[in-house]
């Protein structure tokens, strides 16, 4: 008889715990849990005036991390990459590029300064405008990237990988 009461509160707690973990923190964003490498769906794709927010913490000894906006999730053949942002710590570069029909374009790397610091939080915002993306880091505009994929609404997936932890997406 004694085992039953001991078992039942435990079960209740477990049920409560799993529901808390399973529910998203922000109601407005339908992203899965923020595990790296991460792949999430951008509802309705991109459009002028739409902004993607990525908040995270750089790892202690980072080599690089990347944020991609792609047209779908396909790996094979690879989905078109509207923009890939790659922070390379060894070279203190924040490079961006796109891949259309399997062909990578011209890489751009000019930045006024390198904004990421190991073991520190960051906030990247990708603002979609009619001719370009504008990239902000911690509230400062860092660079523009002109669209190489014209159909903005097709850009419906965000992929994040590398040496970082994600804390929030929006």
From TrEMBL:
Pfam families, per the entry: Gal-bind_lectin
The Galectin domain, residue ranges: 38-170
InterPro entries: ConA-like_dom_sf, Galectin-like, Galectin_CRD
UniProt GO molecular function: carbohydrate binding
Keywords: Lectin
Function statement: Does not bind lactose, and may not bind carbohydrates.
PANTHER family listed in its UniProt record: GALECTIN (PTHR11346), GALECTIN-RELATED PROTEIN (PTHR11346:SF98)
Protein name: Galectin
């Amino acid at each position: 008889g004694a085992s039953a009461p001991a078992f039942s509160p435990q079960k209740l707690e477990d049920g409560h715990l799993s529901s808390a973990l399973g529910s998203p923190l922000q109601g407005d964003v339908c992203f899965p849990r923020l595990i790296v490498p991460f792949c999430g769906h951008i509802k309705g794709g991109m459009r002028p005036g739409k902004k993607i927010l990525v908040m995270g913490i750089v790892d202690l000894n980072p080599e690089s991390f990347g944020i991609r906006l792609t047209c779908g999730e396909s790996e094979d053949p690879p989905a078109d990459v509207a923009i890939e942002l790659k922070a390379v710590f060894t070279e203190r570069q924040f490079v961006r590029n796109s891949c259309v029909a399997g062909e990578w374009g011209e890489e751009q790397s000019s930045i006024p300064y390198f904004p990421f610091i190991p073991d520190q939080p960051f906030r990247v915002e990708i603002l979609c405008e009619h001719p370009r993306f504008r990239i902000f880091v911690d509230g400062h505009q860092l660079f523009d990237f002109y669209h190489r994929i014209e159909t903005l609404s097709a850009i419906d997936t965000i992929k994040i990988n590398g040496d970082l932890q994600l804390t929030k997406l929006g």
